[in-house]
Design goal:
Strand content: under 5%
Shape: globular
Helix content: 55-70%
Largest sheet: none
Order of helices and strands: HHHHHHHHH
Number of strands: 0
Number of helices: 9
Radius of gyration: 15 Å
Structural class: mainly alpha
Amino acid sequence: MPMPYTYRHASEEWRAWLSGLRAVTMVPSDNTLYTATEAVLKSFRARLTPQQALAFADLLPTVLRAIFVSGWDTDAPLQDWPDRETLRQEMLAWRRHHNVSPPDLLEHLLAAVPATMRRPDLDRVLNGIGPQARAFWGTD
């Protein structure tokens, strides 16, 4: 079997991710885009069992997958599902002293992350998690 595309081209996918977000959001800093991306991915992960999280991670491109699982305490209690404003505050609070994310960056990320996945696979995984997961990403 050949090496999966996402492994062979991980750096190019990541640069394309940042470039695509920058084009849509006009946020010039890779650091800001990274911090907001990490915050949203880890906020979602905090609501999932390890099995659910790994099923979701399998759908992500390589670097987003690495961000999603990095530093994970699998024994941490699951958090309640947030409403949109709570999620926005979580994103803005991530590395609070270094985070200069504009508040509307959340909506861009909630659209951009699912766009990296095949929709039937995403639907299957989110349906397995439940309606809160679909609501989180706005796919319900």
